[in-house]
């Protein structure tokens, strides 16, 4: 009898160890696969219901905010855009079904309070917990944005106003634009219907003009051009082999091709500096 109980205990212990190893194996090695699974919406819903910072223009106009929805069902908050399509190309949208675009995507970590600095700052408020979110202020002005919109009218194209002293973007209007409120709607059926209409609309209003634009790069350096600096002599030092101008120019051209070649590197827009200190 004791031998049978001993064998049963050993068998149950082996099953427990095998189950423990398998669970940790799945959670550790298949974490990305489980997180990106379309059927796994628990984490997405949790992130969507968390507080999120606001986006405002340089002259104080509120461009994006999260409002509480008392009877929103599975969603406690909804992202709204008071200015509608006036800033739709810049702010983008934050949707449960379609993700995020524009500034909502570029500064998602800052707006959601997920940066390391914001999380560390939250430890100081353990006794007085509060949402650690960041509020974003861009250099674009609402009044100049409205002037650009009125000037372009119904003509397809873009209008950009730049501060010549700082290079900051003061206005960026592109027609056709879109109203982000239609896509951030918590009514999933209405949001999908609106996206279907915008997808086939003339002029591609869902296309983000500024985030997909090719960054400005300097002209490619000529292979025959050698870079000289004031603190370096052009003549080779005794006992050291001299580098040819062609090889130096080729290396400079290679560096240019990696940064400004066929694939344009994505850069953050100058009109939206990243907040260094979280705003509570």
Description:
The protein has 280 residues and is of the alpha+beta class. The protein has a domain at 51-200: Penicillin-binding protein 2a (Domain 2) (Alpha-Beta Complex), CATH 3.90.1310.10. Helix content is 38%, strand content 11%. The protein has helices at residues 2-29, 31-35, 42-48, 88-91, 102-106, 108-112, 116-123, 142-152, 180-183, 188-200, 245-260; strands at 55-56, 62-68, 77-80, 94-95, 99-100, 136-137, 157-162, 169-175. Strands 3-2-1-6 form a 4-stranded mixed sheet, with no helix packed on it. Strands 4-5 form a two-stranded antiparallel ribbon. Strands 7-8 form a two-stranded antiparallel ribbon. The protein is elongated.
Proportion of strand residues = 5-15%
- The CATH class name of the domain at 51-200 reads Alpha Beta
Would you tell me which CATH topology of the domain at 51-200 applies? Penicillin-binding protein 2a (Domain 2)
Would you count the extended β strands for me?
8
**First-residue to last-residue Cα separation:** 67 Å
Number of helices: 11
SS class: alpha+beta
What percent of the residues sit in helical stretches (DSSP H or I)? 25-40%
Strands of the widest sheet, in order across it, are 3-2-1-6
Rounded mean pLDDT is 75
Q: Can you give me a brief rundown of this structure?
A:
The protein is of the alpha+beta class and 280 residues long.
Write the layout of secondary structure elements.
Elements: H1 2-29, H2 31-35, H3 42-48, E1 55-56, E2 62-68, E3 77-80, H4 88-91, E4 94-95, E5 99-100, H5 102-106, H6 108-112, H7 116-123, E6 136-137, H8 142-152, E7 157-162, E8 169-175, H9 180-183, H10 188-200, H11 245-260
Parallel strand pairs: 1-6
Antiparallel strand pairs: 1-2, 2-3, 4-5, 7-8
